[in-house]
User: Fold these one by one.
Assistant:
Number 1:
Amino acid sequence: MTDISSPKTHQNFIGGKWQDSVSGQTYPVANPAHTSQVVGHFQSSLPQDAENAVHAAHSASKEWANMPAPQRGAILYKALDIMERRAQEMAESITIEEGKPIADAMGEVKRAMNIIEYAAGEGRRLFGYTTPSELPDTIAYTMKRPIGVVALITPWNFPLAIPAWKLAPCLISGNTVIYKPASATPLSAVKLVEIFEEAGLPAGVLNLVTGPGGSVGNTLIEDPRVGGISFTGSTEIGTAITARASELLKKVQCEMGGKNAAIILNDADLDKAVPGVVGGAFGSTGQRCTATSRAIVEEGIYDDFMSSLVEQTAALTIGDGMNESKDLAPLSSKNQLDTVLEYIGIGTEEGARLTFGGHQLQDGEFADGYYVEPTIFEDVKTDMRIAQEEIFGPVLSVFRASDLEDAIRINNAVEFGLSSSVYTRDLVQAHEYINTAHTGMVHVNAPTLGGEVHLPFGGLGASGTGQREQGTEGFEFFSETVTVYIDHSAGAKERSRFI
């Protein structure tokens, strides 16, 4: 069990050294299940701290880029071994600072390990290609080169897995890093950096700066020594980062919001569909960018689906995420609780019918945490705010559809396009959905959730910009492609004057 009886003060990690912020100030992080319980104190960093981190990363950049990629991979394999040894500690840290059930937290640790393992292996597969030249005695090929210094700005809802799926491909590609975690979940960040420090990462290659996103994040974006920015968070902030980084001619990758829908057709297997929707909507308390926020149900099966949906939702247990018997845990913060309750109020004001839940839990074991019931709305119209905006909590809006075409119309009637799913036994309808759903990830007879490390992760529209994360695309973002021509002839020759 992670001991937080005497909360520690944690430092930034810059240039291979743990150190206080130049502000000399810290801020506390509390357990969302027991808000009187302080998890730790963390540095309230200033722009100068970010500048110091950039300087350290820039100074270490050449040596790290020149290290052979298989040797970089060997360090990642060491980090993998260390994380496996510390897996239980890492999972408990996630739960006490973010709130999610311990089983979900352990799943997140395993996902981070999968990512590091996959990236380490790419140290021997950062391939270019050779091609015949149109000129005699000429060799033509491509090669990969790192960006240089990269800023990673990560969210609170997956405080280990998302940083890992940015950090591992970034490092194996030869970049040095400034890592800015979400202010609400810095403990997992500290422990992740400890793991890479123990694995032997050279000083300056990985730098950690905690604190407010505005001043620290803006400094990283503006600094000319930072060549790339990878961000996960809100669409509003991601859009602003994309605009400014593009003006500065930096590489930028933003994974943003979602308003994901599960389509349930008349021929669906309800024994698969209902648990898939319940888990997608309410697992991790709905605090996933791939969470199922909408269920679109064909008329012929609607009543049966709703009956089973309410029954299974009512059976969910709620409580402290460290209690393995609980299905739902608290929301991550007071701000998240206020946001979810506000949207529940908006839904009722807009005329949607509150079918289940919708209340904050404040008595008994819930008195000292950010708990809310899983919530289901019916009679939702596509232009309602609860149908359009990302709530990031355990709130599900249910729609009726006349057929597949109508269901896809509802699915596509939002600005987001991250993930979606369809439940059907009809192969023709499944492929029609695959070809017309406006989402970057599609699932058939499976929830809207998640992905695998060797496949690209990301969405369309307001859900993301830039190259995808994970899979081979993840390495493409963290590398530059250089085209090489070598003339090995003995004398001069006529060359094309096309370009």
Note: Residues 12-256+463-483 form a domain with the Aldehyde Dehydrogenase; Chain A, domain 1 fold (CATH 3.40.605.10).
Number 2:
Amino acid sequence: MQFPNIVKLTLLISQLWGLTACANLPYYAQAISGHFDVVHRSQPIERLIANPEVDPQLKQSLTKVMQLREFASRELKLPDNLSYTSYADLQRPYVVWNVFASPELSLQLKEWCFVQVGCVNYRGFFSQVQAERYAEELRNEGYDVHVGGIRAYSTLGWFSDPVLNTFIGYSETNLARLIFHELAHQVVYVPNDSVFNESFATAVEHEGVRRWFEHHGTASQQTALTSRQDREALFVELVFRHRERLRAVFGSNASDDEKLAQKARIFEEMRAEFLHLRAQRADFGAYDQWFDQPLNNARLATVSIYTEWVPAFQAILEHNGQDMMRFFADVIQLSKLSREERHVALQKAAASHQQWTMVKRGSD
């Protein structure tokens, strides 16, 4: 996840000086203040590990982070810098809260545009109260709204991103996923294309975790990873299938009242299908929290941001023989295309990946 407006302090001051009449100024101010609070709390991990007064469990987790960090640069060719070599305890469960919004009869997420990073499909706040207040304003305007707590964000290489208490308690798998994902944002970032950015980082995350456990995991861990990936694929398929049903309804000639009624039925059927899947496989309970919250267009669309183009990026990686440097070079070239050209290329890659997967399964 990228957080808007993360830039060098001196650059921010000079740019914001000319924005004093802009309605975004209070937002920029809280973003700068919030990020520099994170920076202020950061301490070098090596110093913490060497400190006898630091909790042994924290030391163990930080040691694992250092191993993952080294692996990321060596095996995945991700940036070798100071990101994730320091640690900050924010004394709260999330670092930011992101607000997502969609019209009640559309799956198109609302965009917000910012200095440096362009337009993104969410607006992040370092304060939950501020996020909820802004979300309520959007609801009053008729939007479907989702507020999500975020445990990490990327500064896109402008700063050295620290490890945070918000995710240090993660399992080894989730720690690896998060670190690989956030470092991927430092490889390539395309303003105004959140789905491209997040799907690319998700593809890198998946490949990184696969390689990590291939090198360091036990047979049981690799089996657990495969099971988890199958579960996630089933969840994404469930969401995407009902998303397409909603898209058809929203694009139909039915009245708005009828569209709203069909929308409600689709969400009910989606929840019922989830409960059926959950009864068949206990591990699907991992999505209880997701389904416990109100389902709406914004919540549904957030899944697409992180997964829409993952098959396309996986196809590009396969085309490059799993060579990360060649893969990154191709993705960087894609990032230089216009949005329309980029999406056409990704659609072709995704189609080839689907065909390749079908052939592979047929031979198993």
Note: DSSP finds 14 helices and eight strands in the chain.
Number 3:
Amino acid sequence: MSGPPAVPPAVAPGSRVALVAPAGPPPADLVERAVALLAEWGLEPVVLPSVTAAHGRASYLAGEDAARAHDVQTAWCDPAYAAVLCVRGGYGSARLLDHLDVAAMRTATQEHGPKPLLGSSDVTALHEWLRERLGVATWFAPMVASVAVLDDPVAQDSLRRALAGEPDTALTGTDVVAPGDARGVLVGGNLSLLAMTLSDRTRAGLTAHPAGAIAVLEDVNEATYRLDGYLTSLLRAGWFEHVTGVVCGSWVGCGSEAEVRALVAELLGPLGVPVGWGFDLGHGPGARTVALGVPHRLVADPGATPRLEVAA
């Protein structure tokens, strides 16, 4: 593929969309609400087996690894589905990566074109894998079967518009940690997952972002010292090499915002790239849906509100 991919294609009214659980099991009542919501949007949601499955040992996993991977691969490869919506994060997406058939998924992409995959949090592992192995863009979006969407009109509307091909093209933050103006393909997501999947990138010979990138970082319920460890791991592994800018989303349950911001300034400030703070991305209220793998521009002027825009 020459050049970065385009924004994921719109999902036409009446299309079938697959609901999958690559990580944790979703509450049944939230799945029912998600199905009703998607139907209200004019789509035909299909709940794949992983959504209601149970793991033999671990209650925190939505079924066995191979079964969850099978659902993801089926949803991606079967042209009957126009989109893949991950219903819940939690933990487990990294465990299914080795069960995915790269060749089969690449062939399906070439024959039928890429399709939108939506999710965030633990699904960061899938976003990185799809971008690096298949060269496709995906939607970093709150989970459709979560209160983050079902009880949040702002997040819900942003996700709906992304599916309809009318996504947010510009987001604003609250503060500038380091000034500057950057362009690059948007990568990243949940900080702890990026650190957790470093070995996967190393095995594939992907130690940096050769074409340049703007990194999105966010997390939830992580102590500041653990965020320190994740950032340090990424820095030591060369993950930030050729990163042109950093966009910081929400840090819900991660201690005081001032402490986390100071940590980001201390560790990422020396990179010499612009760092924007306080974007509505991740686990906070009003979380927006943004396209990973797509060129963006980060404008972080001193004393001004930082902006993240889809690049022309």
Note: Residues 224-237 form the longest helix (14 residues).
